[in-house]
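User: I'm putting together notes for a lab meeting next week and I want to include a structural view of one of the chains we've been expressing. I don't have a solved structure, so I'd like a prediction I can at least talk through. The sequence is below, exactly as it appears in our construct file.
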Amino acid sequence: MKKILTIIMTVCLCVSFAIGSFAESDTNNSGSTGSDNNGTTSDPFASLFPEISDPVLAVTQNVIPSIKAGTTGVAEFTVENTSFSFASDIMLTVTSDSSDIKIEPENSVISIGSLSAYGSTKVAVPVSVSPTANGQYSLSISISCVSTTGLFSQQTFNFSGKASLVISRGSAVMQPVIKNMKFDAAEYLAGDLPVLSFTIENPNDFAIYSVSPSVSGFVDGAVDAIFPDQSFYIDRLGAKEAKTFTVKMRTSESVAAQIYNFKLSLSATDDFGTEYAAEKSAYFTVVEKTADEFTAQSPRIIVDSYKMSPSNAQPGDTVTLKINLLNLGVLDAKDLKVSLGGYDAESITLREITSEKEMGTVAVKDTVTAEYSMTLSSVFPQDQNVPLTVFLSYGDLTGKNYVDQSIINIMSNTPEEKPEDDKPQFEVPVYKVPKVIIESFETDSEFIGAGTEFNLKFNLKNTSEDLDVENLRITLVDSGSNAGIFTPVNSGYSFFMDEIEKLGEHELSIPLFAKVSTESGIYALNFQIEYEYYVKTGEKTGEYRSNSLVETISLKVVQPINIEVSNFYSDYYTYANGQSYISFSYNNKSRSNLYFMNIDIEGNATMADGKLEMGSIPSGYSDYIDFAINIGEELGEQEFVIVFNFKDSLNQESSIRYPFTMIVEEQPVYEEPVYNEEDIYMPEVNEPYVEDTEPQITTTTWIIIAAVGAVVIAAVVIIIVVAVKKKKAKEEEDENI
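Assistant: Thanks for the context. Below is the predicted structure for the 737-residue chain, given as structure tokens.
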């Protein structure tokens, strides 16, 4: 009986050893520097069983996931049990090491169940990535699990690991765009109501928040907002979304005539705290309520000459007055109207129904004649000039209107007494006042550079067919709006010559200097021409008379054009047949305004939205701009050129070029990892998911179970054999007795 008990105890010990070995096969026995025991439950039978080794859990990645900046994706990794121990109740806590990566939901806690010895499971964690992220990032993973140490006790183990993900550059992160910022008119009169409109667009593939635009440039009491508390705040501006606003203003009746500039500034942020900003300016001009002034590019009608017939008319006579009008300007005069006034009605009676005559269009350098019939009253003064005012009004082909006036004089001479003899009397010839004009002129070049010296050559012509002119003085008239622009070099403002014969010409050359600060444009240069001429007053007598007139020519002055580019940004590396983004600030540092400006690109690229039309750019104006370009298929280091095309104040086309370089590479091919449905389980959208892997019984485990079964069967066989032999021996012993 004792032997039977001994055998039973042996079998129990073997079974116990087998159970302990099986438990050990499902726990970790490789050890870990990152594990510690957080607590142990008491087991009164623990000393009866062998000690089981601790589990070891680790994070591995065969492929590092790649996600595009500014998008959402999945961070994938594998959790492995690298030990022979069984681990259950496994929990993961995933956190991001960078503010550019957000876990969805934040700081996810994930349960992945149990892992058998050397078992593994794949985990996929949804993440969102900042649009400014680029490069390799890490996720920190904390792991806890439970392992059984005997029949009645458990221990909790903690581990940590890292997972990586690569962020590739996404679409360019662009500042908000201020579009179509303009006033409803370019010029206003004092007291008008300007209206400013503008559009704010988010050009990015993600939303921005707290967009706060503000308009500055108001002048208290001169230009004020009609609604001073108007708000343009935008709580959220979605991807590619735009909003338009208007600002209504009021100008004072006494506002100064000048340019008024307004600046729009805005700021915003995105989900990751990245700040965005943009600025743009617009302006309008307040003009005075005055008539149009004559310029170097306008028509100019003057009284060229006049004649009263008969010249010896007496009070009470009816006379004819012919007034010759000359267009001295550079444009045709349209709808010329002439009228007389300013005379004493008691001295002159106008026989016309109306004093206004319509003369039509007068071409440049052409002359027309206005003819009036009038009666000199009986009280018309003799031997003294009686003034009349000639009023002129006309327009040009651009729609501008002009008014001018001139004074003429008529006279009634006392008749001479007739001689007693029959000798014919000398009749005083009637001469037109000789005119000296600038028939032609030329400079060293068509365009005169501001701040340079140049020679002006011009021909003076005496247009009279009857009289010579003498003692000429030509004076540069430095007055008016163009004063100080042109100054003589090494000489005074006056030039002299002795004589120009009738219908004769004389060439004069003057060295001049154009002022450095002169803006590009066409400027008038006025010359006062003074001279004398001799006329006969009798058969053997005569006298010198003088005349003076002003001749105007126009000179073209150009300023150097300078556009400064700063804060230039472009991708140094880009992809063939892809899209890249350019941004920069530019400043018109010229003294001249630029017109019809557009921005284009040259090289292995084209503008994504075509040429950027910028319109008129005032002197000193600066702005920030960004745009997309389509890259061609040519690879390697490529040179590109930003081209500013524009016209200057003289309507001359010009351009400024800004070169830069990018390296064009082939488009990368990203292959999505391929998993079998049995390998990974994807949870619902926006929730972390894990693979539900059942504990696996390995080959080693089956060997252990088979060994234990063999031991048990052997023990039972031995017991049966021993019992049979003892029984047989006892029976033989009883028979012998």
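A couple of points you could mention at the meeting. The first strand starts at residue 37 and ends at 40. Residues 19-50, 290-294 have pLDDT under 50 and may be disordered.

User: Perfect, that's what I needed.
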